[in-house]
Write a structure and sequence with these properties.
The structure is a homodimer.
Chain A lengths: L6 H8 L3 H9 L6 H14 L5 H8 L4 E6 L6 H13 L5 E6 L3 H13 L4 E4 L6 H10 L2 E5 L9 E5 L1 H14 L5 E5 L5 H16 L9 E3 L4 H14 L5 E4 L2 H13 L9 E3 L5 H5 L6 E3 L2 H16 L10 E4 L2 E3 L2 H4 L7
Parallel strand pairs in A: 1-2, 1-3, 3-4, 4-5, 5-11, 6-7, 6-8, 8-9
Antiparallel strand pairs in A: 10-12
Helix pairs in contact in A: 1-2, 1-3, 5-13, 6-7, 8-9, 10-11
Chain A binds a DNA duplex through helix 2 and helix 4.
Chain lengths: ~350, ~350
DNA sequence: CTGAAAGCGCTTACAG
DNA sequence: CTGAAAGCGCTTACAG
């Protein structure tokens, strides 16, 4: 007996042909119960695992999906990953999370990712260069974008309803009687900053009120940004009764600076964030915020990819899915008792 | 001209043999400058990318490494991943992060991971079943363990010096004059709980003091665990001047409960954590803790894998690397001013 | 329901 | 320094 390996060894042990073993494995054509049993016994006896390289060489599929993120230490992305796995594992796909380390690193990693011939790629990227867009389109790899359209024919995308979330925050604050409401954005040129401010304006308009441009400042999406934002707003006026921040980190920095100035939250001034990161519930007072449905974004992205991979969908129009967000009211806007010391 | 693809198309365009193209790609044997130039021109013209499946089928290598973690939403693991990438990308390996979703999920995912024939796997797992250990050993895949030995011949492991970190915390507290120091552990049977308490005892012994067993309680590694721990400790006595917690989450819960009881941190009682998660700097007062060198753990694990993969190391003895930890002193033990309101 | 054979795209001895 | 050929382990028409 020659020393065979792989599927040939299984075939020999089971006393059937190599093709029959393959059919048992794939289920692509009917196999008699007796044969199937012999083959499965041989597989178990030999501890056989198909070689994925050989498989993909023929089938042109790798059964793996990549999630390419700019910064895996940002807690938003692990949640997206978990959501994608929810959908992909039961469908037989393996999800690989690839960290580019930064927005600019994404382009650099893209080449490596395309080389590996993943069946599909999910990516969250701010500025995709024309060269990268062309590489993606040519590669034939299915792409789903998170957060924004990346402008490739047939590439679907999923985003959360930022504007709606800020409209809810605005309504909540207006509903509790706050009127002198400042806004601290992240980088002024960023899409999220604009969309989020837009949602706040919408809440004011809905209540028949105008929103004053002098009530907005733009800094950066960081804790320091929040501190700077408060400093800038309090130079303009000092009677704010609420501060809406473009994300939770800004809000936490804003609370630091408000506390340093001897102001009480929420008795003197209410503060809100966005994203509902873990820290939002950990800080004191706990932060009213909006849940960014990261996990659901991941699930949706995975479903869109699977649909495209199932074929037939090649000529389907690009899909754009917007997920609604949920207001999470905590103590920073509504604490009934005066702040404890 | 027949319609070739892959390396054959490159060979035809360049007017050389398929083997020569392969040699240019791999650098495995000398190629004349002129030939190399022709081949590279053809590669660029055709936008050729080698097929990884075909490559691994022959070479028995995938040039990819997997990091298998129990819960990617635990911020410790993304940092480990970043550290591994620091080392692996320059070496030409792609790192795939795979999330098992839970400790128990790790075994379930292991089969899928082994099927993919990664060249190496890094994993952090508490209880590896004998069956899984056998599967890992048989697969021939290189394994490096994070946090503990998994008992496979030739599998190195990396851990951080928990005991040393707690010894530093203990010395810091004793040095600031605290003596009535309680300890809130996680699950009592867990290795980390034992090791960490051991470090604290060591600090007392070093100062010529004894440590009282009645000063320890075990709960769980969560925020709720911290609340419960305080309740349990204050049933025993009420004059604690410091609480050492087995991780940051416990510490944050402990601070919640101390504050609720009207105690001031650190004026009445100091609190310490472990890990230095982001939230440790975000809470108020900011938390004195110990940095768990996650990124360095990742780097070290990656280096160990690469060394083994470079061969020659097959018969090298198992390596066990312990990384030292760093004390991070913040306001929860030393705030010079009375706590602000 | 089953088998023999071609071929996916590479790498690697073997020859020259 | 270069080429022809075998073969890695599968899947998939083609035949029966």
């Amino acid at each position: 007996m020659t020393q065979k390996s792989g599927i040939a060894a299984v075939a020999e042990t089971a006393g059937v042909s190599v093709s029959t073993v393959s059919q048992v494995l794939s289920g692509n054509r009917p196999v008699s119960e007796a044969t199937r049993a012999k083959v499965n016994a041989a597989i178990a006896e030999l501890g056989y695992t198909p070689h994925p390289g050989a498989r993909s060489l023929r089938s042109r599929r790798t059964e793996s999906i990549a999630l390419l993120v700019p910064d895996i230490t940002n807690p938003f992305y692990p949640l997206v990953a978990v959501g994608m796995q929810d959908v992909l594992l039961p469908a037989g796909y393996l999800l690989s999370i690839l960290d580019a380390g930064s927005q600019s690193g994404t382009g650099r990693l893209l080449g490596h990712v395309l080389e590996r011939r993943f069946d599909g790629i999910a990516l969250h990227i701010d500025g995709l260069s024309d060269a990268d867009r062309a590489r993606l389109a040519e590669s034939g790899t299915r792409v789903v974008a998170l957060g924004r359209d990346i402008g490739i024919e047939g590439s679907d995308y999923v985003e959360s309803d930022d504007a709606g979330g800020f409209a809810k925050l605005g309504e909540h604050l207006l509903g509790t009687g706050r009127r002198r409401i400042g806004f601290i954005g992240g980088e002024e040129e960023s899409d999220p900053s604009r969309l989020r401010l837009g949602g706040l304006r919408q809440a004011f308009a809905g209540a028949g009120l105008g929103y004053d441009d002098a009530a907005t400042v733009f800094t950066s999406f960081t804790r320091d940004g929040g501190r700077d934002g408060i400093a800038a707003l309090y130079e303009r006026r000092t009677d704010w009764d609420a501060i809406v921040c473009a994300n939770d980190l800004i809000a936490i920095g804003a609370m630091d600076e408000l506390r340093r100035r001897g102001l009480s939250i929420p008795a003197d001034v209410a503060v809100t964030g966005y994203d509902d990161i873990d820290a939002a519930a950990l800080v004191h007072p706990s932060l009213t915020t909006v849940e960014n449905p990261a996990r659901e974004i991941g699930r949706t992205a995975a479903r869109l990819l699977l649909t495209r991979l199932a074929g037939d969908g090649d000529d389907a129009p690009t899909q754009h899915i917007t997920l609604s967000t949920r207001l999470v009211v905590r103590d920073s806007t509504t604490s009934p008792i005066p702040q404890e010391r």
